[in-house]
């Protein structure tokens, strides 16, 4: 595991060096708050008690709390310790070392350890890695399983229709590697630390606040609130000339930035999917290291976008990573992505691989699927969006790590000359760096996303899956995405659900405990944990909406689309009606609830730092 103790020492040194700053910040400043521990919850009749819904100045729990802030300064602050954030940090320090410049780069990550919240299939295309570290093999990068075999299938309920993997199709994986992305991210963290990046795991960026600011100037500050049962200390600020936001899919801070700077004004709404994954130890005679299997079709109908993967790892023991992806633009509120995943494992083509094996890990996360049409404006005064936060995933490839890494590297290359300029008007004034967007549009990332821009929206036709596959075969495989039009998505995923009365309930088989499993035993394998004395980080804008609208019209879809059993409707203690119960301690931080809630009443905010899943190489 990643040696967190090294970063704890740095964190303590940083805290000792803090200096007190004024409680009221100066004008022209943008603030990003980072949560270590939040205020203890007290019993109340309402569901939501979080300060983002009930402001501190109107909440008696905060009376008498000392709200003084502390601060430190860095040249660049990076929020998020995933592939994009770490690649940006590494590239910045590489450039600083090359040019003999002193550059302080600080990276904060909400997981307790680097890689602990990372989950992906994952089949890695090594192009960006090779650019970042040409000698990655000599450095010991954990890419142990080159792809040796590609299998693609259309599944019916009982049979499999093989689809030939022709050269040039986006699903072709020749030259790629099957990886456990959490292990890869931990390795990136080690490389970053060796270069001098300051890494602070266990610190969750909680909010962005805006005082008055000039459009061309903004200082981004990071706060770290610490709180035990009876002690509260206002959060630390990390002042920086520029902050990179690499939070991952549907980032909590990115949502705030979109609104403040109107970053989504000229793009389509983002569309998403939920990906569920398990790691299995199987019988050695069934193990085929390097084999990659993908499928579409059953158990989903032709109008529900999704598919599966099953990857055979080569890591000294017979392991397979398998998962199921469901587009969140589905319209039947009775659909449960988790139970579709469990049902898929019983298909005659899949079950034999798992029989006699043991499931050892489980997790879930949301995926960006909007592609080129949904990329927002990427720069604003004092900040930049990188990685899966704005969404650079190549959907038909089911790959986003290489594009996320490249976006971080391009951001670093655009930032470096501006941050280190000798004639800077201010040592702390926030920088606006539009060069990043320009360079991204000239890179292979943009070219790649442009060529596949129409594949995902092409599935919105009468024939659904099959119409989309025909479109892909003609316009991508033959014409390489050079058609002179760009298709549109269908709008927000939250708007796609139909009322329950217009849909057919889905009867799912009971799990057998051998191949398929119940939800709570699955969540237990994710290592998820949150301190119980904090307000639930699954907040509701209006506590009355779940029963009055979601349950009444859509039969409570949050109890089905959540892959962790966070939401459930239970009888009122008085016996008259139902109420929504939020089991926030189960949350695996996938953000699906925030995306798919038909009322857009759920607002996912970060819990205290270090909480959430504890994935070990997922």
TrEMBL record:
Cross-referenced SUPFAM superfamilies: 4Fe-4S ferredoxins, FAD-linked reductases, C-terminal domain, FAD/NAD(P)-binding domain
PROSITE patterns: 4FE4S_FER_2 (PS51379)
Keyword set, alphabetical order: Acetylation, Electron transport, FAD, Flavoprotein, Iron, Iron-sulfur, Membrane, Metal-binding, Mitochondrion, Mitochondrion inner membrane, Oxidoreductase, Phosphoprotein, Transit peptide, Transmembrane, Transmembrane helix, Transport, Ubiquinone
Cofactor note: Binds 1 [4Fe-4S] cluster.
Predominant place of localization: mitochondrion
GO molecular-function terms, A-Z: 4 iron, 4 sulfur cluster binding; electron-transferring-flavoprotein dehydrogenase activity; metal ion binding
Catalytic activity: a ubiquinone + reduced [electron-transfer flavoprotein] = a ubiquinol + oxidized [electron-transfer flavoprotein] + H(+)
InterPro entries: 4Fe4S_Fe-S-bd, ETF-QO, ETF-QO/FixC_UQ-bd, ETF-QO/FixX_C, FAD/NAD-bd_sf, FAD/NAD-binding_dom
Localization (cell): Mitochondrion inner membrane
Residues of the 4Fe-4S ferredoxin-type domain: 578-607
Gene3D superfamilies with a match to the protein in the record: 3.30.70.20, 3.30.9.90, FAD/NAD(P)-binding domain
TM region(s), chain numbering: 459-479
Cofactor(s), names only, from the UniProt record: [4Fe-4S] cluster; FAD
Annotated GO CC locations: mitochondrial inner membrane
EC number from the UniProt entry: 1.5.5.1
PANTHER family per UniProt: ELECTRON TRANSFER FLAVOPROTEIN-UBIQUINONE OXIDOREDUCTASE (PTHR10617), ELECTRON TRANSFER FLAVOPROTEIN-UBIQUINONE OXIDOREDUCTASE, MITOCHONDRIAL (PTHR10617:SF107)
Assembly information from the UniProt record: Monomer.
Function text: Accepts electrons from ETF and reduces ubiquinone.
Protein name: Electron transfer flavoprotein-ubiquinone oxidoreductase
Lineage per the UniProt record: Eukaryota, Metazoa, Chordata, Craniata, Vertebrata
Gene designation per UniProt: etfdh
């Amino acid at each position: 595991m990643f040696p967190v103790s090294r970063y704890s020492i740095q964190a303590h040194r940083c805290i000792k060096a803090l200096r007190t700053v004024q409680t009221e910040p100066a004008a022209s400043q943008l603030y990003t708050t980072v949560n270590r521990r939040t205020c203890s919850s007290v019993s109340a009749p309402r569901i939501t008690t979080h300060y983002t819904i009930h402001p501190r100045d109107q909440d008696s729990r905060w009376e008498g709390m000392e709200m003084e802030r502390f601060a430190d300064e860095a040249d660049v602050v990076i929020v998020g310790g995933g592939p994009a954030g770490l690649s940006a940090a590494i590239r910045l320090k590489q450039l600083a070392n090359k040019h003999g410049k002193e550059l302080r780069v600080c990276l904060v990550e909400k997981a307790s350890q680097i890689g602990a919240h990372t989950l992906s299939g994952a089949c890695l295309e090594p192009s960006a890695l090779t650019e970042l570290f040409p000698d990655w093999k000599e450095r010991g990068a954990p890419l142990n399983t080159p792809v040796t075999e590609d299998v693609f299938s259309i599944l019916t309920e009982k049979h499999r229709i093989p689809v030939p993997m022709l050269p040039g199709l986006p699903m072709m994986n020749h030259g790629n590697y099957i990886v456990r992305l959490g292990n890869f991210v931990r390795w990136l963290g080690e490389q970053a630390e060796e270069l001098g990046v300051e890494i602070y795991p266990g610190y969750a960026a909680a909010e962005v606040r805006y005082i008055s600011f000039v459009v061309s100037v903004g200082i981004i500050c990071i706060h770290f609130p610490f709180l035990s049962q009876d002690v509260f200390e206002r959060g630390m600020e990390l002042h920086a000339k520029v902050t990179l936001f690499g939070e991952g899919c549907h980032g909590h801070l990115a949502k705030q930035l979109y609104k403040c700077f109107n970053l989504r004004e000229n793009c389509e709404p983002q569309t998403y999917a939920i990906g569920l994954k398990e790691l299995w130890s199987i019988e050695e005679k069934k193990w085929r290291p390097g084999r990659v299997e993908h499928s579409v079709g059953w158990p989903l109908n032709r109008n529900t976008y999704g598919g599966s993967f099953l990857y055979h790892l080569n890591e000294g023991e017979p392991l397979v990573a398998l998962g199921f992806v469901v587009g969140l633009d589905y319209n039947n509120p009775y659909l449960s992505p988790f139970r579709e995943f469990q049902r898929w494992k019983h298909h005659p083509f899949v079950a034999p691989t798992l029989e006699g094996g043991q499931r050892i890990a489980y997790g879930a996360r949301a995926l960006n699927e909007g592609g080129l049409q949904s990329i927002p404006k990427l720069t604003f005064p004092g900040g930049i969006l990188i990685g899966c936060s704005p969404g650079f995933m190549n959907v038909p490839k089911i790959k986003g790590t290489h594009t996320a890494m490249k976006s971080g590297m391009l951001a670093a290359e655009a930032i470096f000359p501006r941050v280190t300029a000798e004639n800077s008007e201010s040592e702390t004034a926030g920088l606006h760096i539009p060069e990043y967007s320009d360079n991204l549009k000239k890179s292979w990332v943009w070219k790649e996303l442009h060529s596949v821009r129409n594949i995902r929206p092409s599935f919105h036709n009468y024939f659904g899956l099959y119409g989309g596959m025909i479109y892909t075969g003609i316009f991508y495989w033959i014409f390489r995405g050079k058609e002179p039009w760009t298709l549109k998505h269908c709008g927000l995923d939250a708007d796609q659900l139909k009322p329950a009365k217009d849909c057919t309930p889905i009867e799912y088989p009971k799990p057998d405990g051998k191949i398929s499993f119940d939800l709570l035993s699955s969540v237990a394998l994710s290592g998820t944990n949150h301190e119980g004395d904090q307000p639930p980080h699954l907040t509701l804008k209006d506590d009355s909406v779940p029963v009055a609208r979601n349950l009444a019209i859509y039969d409570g879809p949050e109890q089905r689309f959540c892959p962790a059993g966070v939401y459930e409707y239970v009888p009122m203690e008085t016996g008259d009606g139902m109420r929504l119960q939020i089991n926030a301690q189960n949350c695996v931080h996938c953000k699906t609830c925030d995306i798919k809630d038909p009322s857009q009443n759920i607002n996912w905010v970060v819990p205290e730092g270090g909480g959430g899943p504890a994935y070990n190489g997922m």
